[in-house]
Amino acid sequence: MLKNPIASLPRMVPHVLVLAALCIAAPLVAAQTAPSRIGFVTTERLMTESKMAKAADAKIQAEFSKRQKTNEEMVAKFKQMSEKFDADAPRLTDVERTRRARELFDMEKDVQRMNREFTEDLMQRKSEERAAIATKAYKLIEQIAEQEKLDAVLQEAAWSSPRIDITDRILKLLDK
After folding, report:
1. Which pLDDT score is estimated for 156?
2. 42: domain CATH number?
């Protein structure tokens, strides 16, 4: 077919180079386009449905119930004193009305401070407990991701297929 193979060699070089490049690049492209495997975890479910989370909630409830009762009693006492003051105010002298109004104002500040401190302490304890659950859950997620050879595990999504949801498996491991 070719009369002079050496004469046609310069024209064949670009074709040979392109063919060689394709042979080298094909496995790389195939490796890059292999389907990725992902998993999905609903972290809020881990924080509410796990035995660990329920035990933490019970522990916090027991720890803060006395303070909550004290706060509620203080609020009730303040309301009672405020209603009594409103009923008695027209009959009180200016000096007595001013004194009792100041007492109510101071008591209201104390009630607000107690409620704010209670809420801050409660939120801090809940955060501490959630952090402990999250730490343990993160280790379990890593373990399952390695076992299942997942490329990524997502925790926030607008929608996810139940096929990739690993939340139930994490819950079971978390509850052991």
Report:
1. 85
2. 3.30.910.20
Query: Does residue 82 sit in the same domain as residue 20?
Result: no
**109 and 169 share a domain?**
yes
The residue with tokens 């609903």 is 42
Least confident of 1-5, 39-43, 127-131, 138-142: 1-5
Residue 116 has pLDDT above 90, yes or no: yes
Nearest-angstrom CA–CA distance, 147 and 176: 18
Distance in angstroms (rounded) separating the CA atoms of residues 41 and 157:
9
Model confidence pLDDT, tens digit, residues 52-111:
999 999 999 999 999 999 999 999 999 999 999 999 999 999 999 999 999 999 999 999
User: Cβ–Cβ contacts within 10 Å for residue 150, how many?
Assistant: 18
Q: Give dist(CA 114, CA 105) in Å, integer.
A: 14
Q: Are residues 100 and 159 in the same domain?
A: yes
Burial 19-58 (b: 16+ CB within 10 A, else e): eeeeeeeeeeeeeeeeeeebbbbbbeebbebbebbeebee
C-beta separation of 85 from 104 below 8 A:
yes
Q: Which domain holds residue 170?
A: 35-174
